[in-house]
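Hi P.,

Sorry for the delay on this. The queue was packed all week, but I finally got your sequence through. Input first:
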Amino acid sequence: MHVFLTAYGGAHIAAVLPLYDALRQRGHHCTLLALTTAREFARRSGVSACHPIDFLNVNDACINGPGSVLADRHHTEGKGITWSESVAYLGVSFRDLASELGEMMAWERYERQGLNAFTPVPFLRQVLADLKPDVVVATTSPRMEKAALRAAFQLDIPSLCMVELFGILEEPWISRPDNGHVVSVSRPDVARRLVAAGRQASDVHCIGSPMFDYLADPCFEQQGRLWRLQHGVAENEVLVFWAEQPEPTNSELPRRVRSHLATLAKASGWRLVVRLHPSSTDASKEALPPGVLQSHADEPLMAVMSACDVGVTLTSTVGWELLLANKPLLVLRLSPNQGAVTFGQGDGALAVDSLDECRDALTLLLGDTQKSRQLADLRHQLPRPGGAATRISDLIEQIVQPRYYSLELNRYARSQEVGA
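Then the structure:
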């Protein structure tokens, strides 16, 4: 079986790479289309991936012209993506939108919606027609991942959409039947919402996400001890982990939280470690407060997660990973995007509404109180991570790929109707 997988960076490629490995181990042929910063994730994992530029004529003026304009606005050096790749990726996205709306209206939509204006289905149809996969797999990211699922639907290629976590912002399009013939989720509440939004219950499978499989690694605690040793964090020192997520409408909010936590940690005798978002934050342009440790994108997230005593976040999916790893978590409900996540006290996290509450909240989480024990009990009740890549591989083999035959019958029936 030939499986086509595609993903952007961050949580998306983190979900796809373990599945890619599991499918390869079963003898399946896999093609990975790594989008933007996913290229560097794939390279570090030793996975050979293709990229949008590989399927394009880079001398095409319909791609080069708008692509260069857009790259001037969006290309960032130092993320493993060349200027030419950004031009190709952005240019073909604009080309497809302009083919649909006309050039002037395409620019107007882009000015209103930014990069989310782009869903280059014609380009992905071309890619899939060339590669002829038996199954298409993508996650919940918009633009090219969404386009891959819609192109697969149009070409009658069985497809799977992996919902990495909450799927709230993506629900309007994942609830459509042309965005994955089958959907896998990792939380029961996500399955219920998708069914309520219109997906067939038989098409939604609550079997976890491969991006969390690494939390079951028996070396998890050992990695944390090694990280602390390498970074000079004593065994008895409290290590607070700030998992940062960009705020598109308020870029200063993460920096303000970062600064507040640094001041708080210094006053309390704690150590603070910061993990900037690998896909959306240019680490070279961020000035961390003195004394603050940094967890760089090229080091395993598992190590710093294991090393920390407590985590803090606004909306990062790392917050959920910390809870699954049974780490105390403080959620700061300060983001206008707070509705995009659902973890909270019911999952064993503590949520507050202001920075002024941070000190007392962290002290509570780090202490041995009735409240901290209650939250720990809730974390213990969460589904244990591990084995999702195996379960989703089974799903592809047993349910997704067999749909090929029913889709073939549908295609034959349509051809007969046309002939009649």
